[in-house]
Design a protein that fits this description.
Elements: E1 12-16, H1 45-58, E2 62-66, H2 76-86, E3 91-96, H3 101-111, E4 115-119, H4 125-132, H5 137-149, E5 153-158, H6 169-179, E6 183-186, H7 203-211, E7 216-218, E8 228-232, E9 237-241, E10 254-257, E11 262-264, E12 273-274, H8 276-280, H9 284-296, H10 317-320
Parallel strand pairs: 1-2, 1-10, 2-3, 3-4, 4-5, 5-6, 6-9
Antiparallel strand pairs: 7-8, 8-9, 10-11, 11-12
Helix pairs in contact: 1-2, 1-9, 2-3, 3-5
The structure holds guanosine-5'-triphosphate (GTP), S-adenosylmethionine and iron/sulfur cluster (SF4) (2 copies).
S-adenosylmethionine binds near residues 188 and 191.
Cofactor: [4Fe-4S] cluster
Enzyme class: lyase
EC number: 4.1.99.22
Length: about 325
């Protein structure tokens, strides 16, 4: 079992397979970065898998593949198959913007993927295009449909932004409710890579908007998801990811591995260590020791706040995988 310095059990590894992306979401990557990490500096799938095995052997139960946009990296289905066949009962999932999902869904399912979280910030062509800075909506909706058809379990992620998509939160909920997909609204997390004008909604503001159309009750927090669930009277459950809440980090069970082999104890903090050398030297003991050291240094909580004393993260979400 993996335990951090605050006694939190860590059993969830998020693996970013690329920092590159085909969208330029205002809250994440509004401009193309000045330079990408060169391809040769990335860990191969085999090397990433070597580390994932170390993690699983030490107690990781849930692996999420993310990015950048993970579907941009060639051969992803082979990587998924490696993980799926290493441990049958692993909770293996993928987070994607959905743009390339239409052609990838069947391959992903066949490789052993069970569930997928797709970002959907708007149901209006022009708003989706404004957020992603690309005409994306039709392809994303097609991708979601294809994933559904092949039997992948779907969740939808939506980042509510002031003056941009905050008038659509109920429409998005209705769309997801009709399709049977849980939607999770994510509070915008301030970071120095986002567009200067980006401003998110707090969980309370999101709830106020939904309250105008639906009654709902806060649910008990259970399981490994970062989402706080709310249940409508008809039983539909939506979630809000509330990183500005004081107690959000108390149940943190997550660590992150970037595509270039940096193991990050917290989405918010700078401190991190590379496992690249150890993995490439096939020094499993050293890789396991670095994992434990990173966990021992996992911070108690982030310093995002809705007050003036909020600290902005310099970590790019497209690098850490969100
Ligand atoms: N601050 C913070 N935000 C997180 C953390 N984990 C997830 N999030 C946010 O929630 C978003 C959605 O996460 P997903 O990639 O869908 O994964 P998930 O919510 O763990 O997925 P489920 O396993 O389906 O619940 C992330 O991209 C982040 O923006 C975390 O540890 N800290
Ligand atoms: C970094 S993306 C990577 C996976 C994929 N490209 C996607 O967009 O789903 C993972 C998640 O992070 C969320 N995200 C990115 N930047 C964020 C921010 N500043 N605040 C909150 N969520 C953010 C996205 O909405 C997405 O759901
Ligand atoms: S949120 Fe995802 S889709 Fe949007 S720019 Fe970031 S990595 Fe790309
Ligand atoms: S901000 Fe850091 S400590 Fe808090 S939940 Fe996210 S990863 Fe965990």
């Amino acid at each position: 079992m993996l335990v951090d310095g605050f006694g939190r059990k860590v059993d969830y590894l998020r693996v970013s397979v690329t920092e590159r992306c085909n969208f330029r979401c205002q809250y994440c990557m509004p401009e193309k970065p000045f330079s990408w990490v060169p391809k040769e500096e990335l860990l191969s799938y085999e090397d990433l898998f070597e580390f994932i095995k170390v993690g699983i052997d030490e107690g990781i139960k849930k692996v999420r593949i993310t990015g950048g946009e993970p579907l941009l990296r060639e051969g992803l289905e082979n990587f998924i198959q490696m993980i799926a066949s290493y441990k049958e009962d692993i909770d293996l999932a993928l987070t994607t913007n959905g743009f390339l999902l239409d052609q990838a869904a069947q391959k992903l399912k066949d490789a052993g993927l069970k569930r997928i979280n797709v970002s959907l910030d708007s149901l209006k062509d022009e708003v989706a295009a404004k957020i992603a800075q690309k005409n994306v909506l039709k392809k994303v909706l097609k991708g979601i449909e294809a994933a559904d058809k092949v039997g992948l379990k779907i969740k939808i992620n939506c980042v509510p932004m002031k003056g941009i998509n905050d008038d659509e939160l109920v429409d998005i909920l209705n769309f997801c409710k009709e399709k049977g997909y849980p939607v999770r609204y994510i509070e915008y997390m301030e970071n120095s890579h986002a567009k200067d004008t980006a401003k998110g909604l707090t969980s309370e503001e999101i709830q106020e908007i939904i309250k105008k159309s639906y009654n709902f009750k806060k649910q008990e927090r259970t399981g490994p998801s970062p989402s706080q669930d709310y249940k409508l009277d008809d039983g539909y459950v939506f979630g809000i990811i509330e990183p500005h809440k004081d107690d959000f980090c108390a149940t943190c069970n997550r660590i992150r591995l970037t595509a270039s082999g940096v193991l990050i104890p917290c989405l918010y903090f700078e401190d991190a260590q590379s496992i690249k050398e150890a993995i490439q030297a096939k020094d499993i003991k050293k890789a396991a020791a670095i994992l434990k050291d990173v966990l021992a240094n996992k911070p108690e909580k982030n310093k995002w706040s809705t007050e003036d004393n909020s600290e902005t993260s310099t970590r790019a979400f497209y690098e850490t995988g969100g």
